[in-house]
Amino acid sequence: MALKLLSWNVNGLRAVSAKPDWRWFTESDADCIALQETKALPSQLADSLTKPAGWHAYFCSSTVKKGYSGVAVFSRQEPIKVTQELPWPEQQGEGRLLHLEFAHWHLMNGYFPNGGAAIVDEKGHPTGQFNRLPYKMAFFEAFLRYAEEARKSKPVVVCGDFNIAHKPCDLARPKENEKNTGFLPEERAFLDRMLAQGYLDTFRLRHPEAKDAYSWWSYKTRARAKNIGWRIDYFFVSSELADAVEDAWIEDQVMGSDHCPVGLRLKISD
After folding, report:
1. Exposed, middle or buried by CB within 10 Å (0-12, 13-18, 19+), for 262?
2. What is the tens place of the pLDDT at every residue in 59-81?
3. Rounded distance, CA 75 to CA 4, Å?
4. pLDDT in tens, 204-242
5. In this structure, which of 130, 162, 179, 270 has its CB flanked by the most CB atoms within 10 Å?
């Protein structure tokens, strides 16, 4: 059977669900919808979000800071098991991962950390370092270890906001951003290693030559109108599913957030 999977950083679930753009969810024919940056506890959400008709709904929210981070997954099919967060204390508390296990595959929805603010010296000059970058890279290492362990039992699908543009073609202005977090060499090298360990960027798998295809645009500079964006939202699959990938796409016409949804159609037994 073919599964339609969608992923969207909504930049606040309460805010986006109050907009007309939320028709994207209420009218969707997807089998699974993964959201990032929900910024809410389930107790703060309406029943239409926590118990939507036709869906099994799961949430992982930040416990260290209110109105911060958070992920959710809505699935037509009830999973075998649902796990919140990574299993190590150092990576817990920010509500960054939901793992749904199905009969023949794993789905992992992540809102991966960003690099944070630039660190400046005593004269106010940039040092080239960022205050959250060590946490970000440690989180990625822990996540990959976790995904590889799950992969021993069945194939893995990973979606979410990675806060990394992988290649120069994945952002509008690569030269200007070479020293900015999200496009640093060590961040990009992590995605290189993911690919080397057998994870496939499904959008590039199906659209290797695509240009000007982005999933995030800065609100501050009104970049979306000019399509000055970054592709930082992904669906990766472990290589066992390479032949199962029917299509992958970016829904850049969907508004309501500074990100847009990304999608994957996967032919898989379940």
Report:
1. buried
2. 999 999 989 999 999 999 999 99
3. 11
4. 999 999 999 999 999 988 999 999 999 999 999 999 999
5. 162
Domains for the chain: give ranges and CATH numbers: 2-267 (3.60.10.10)
Q: What b/e string do you get for 37-65 counting C-beta neighbours within 10 Å, with b at 16 or more? A: bbbbebeebeeebbeeeebbebbbbbeee
CB crowding 186-214: b at 16 or more within 10 Å, else e: ebbebbeebeeeebbbbbbebeeeeeebb
Neighbours of 222 (CB within 10 A): 10
Q: Is 124 exposed, middle or buried (0-12, 13-18, 19+ CB in 10 A)?
A: exposed
The one catalytic residue among 31, 161, 233, 252: 161
Distance CA 237, CA 49 (A): 28
